[in-house]
Design a protein that fits this description.
mainly alpha, four-stranded mixed sheet
Length: about 260
Amino acid sequence: MSAPASKRQRTSPSYELLYHPGIPGRGEYIRLAFEAAGTPYTDVANDSRNGYSQVQKVMSLKTGDSDGNPPIFAPPALRVPEEGKDGKTLLISQTPNILLYLGPKLGLVPEDEVGRLHVNQLTLTALDLSNEAHDVHHPVGVSLYYEDQKEEAIRKAQDVRENRLPKFLGHFEGVLKGNEEEGKGKYLVGEKLTYADTTLWQVVDGFYFAFPKEMAHLAKSGKYPLVFDSFYPNIKEKLTEYLESERRLEYSMGIYRHYPELDRQ
């Protein structure tokens, strides 16, 4: 769901998130940015009974809309009234593109260009790991059922657990170590929260859901102390109000799916 009622009463939302209902999915990376910044937004598909029909209508436009926006390939998308060409409605898509747009407006990037580039860079890398999680349960084709590619999924899961996940975690451990003087192991860039932090946090949390045994093993290995003992709990604490609310959607059949046979045996 969107921001708490108290926030909506103080400020009318000007941001509209267009995504599938009922799952965190890629829309969660956008939600976390809004929630971390305390900025009101409307989660269109989840906030009204016919909300998803509005999302589907926008996605059905094959040549763009009347406000001069190109067509959306797939959600998530962000709609912002009066922020487009000539004061019309802005409509943009692609998760990292939306975060790149929102970062300065939500105060979730450094003020300097170099810092913003680093935030975007690390976000893209975290989203690469997110894609790995999805490809585990759909390694052959997204149009196929998991059961139709289970054998391949088991092979893919082993590679992700043993090779890809440690590589990404090692990379982010190094990023946190390199920024330790400013970030104290709690932030990826500088000394304040950025959308790179909320994005990586969601990826790590998603992997905890999908591969609880493997993640417990990696956390206890001692190889990634900043990721597991400093960064992850710090960002989680900052998101506590949201995570304990009904607005936080449960993991289910989205990017992060738990199949015991794909986890550490």
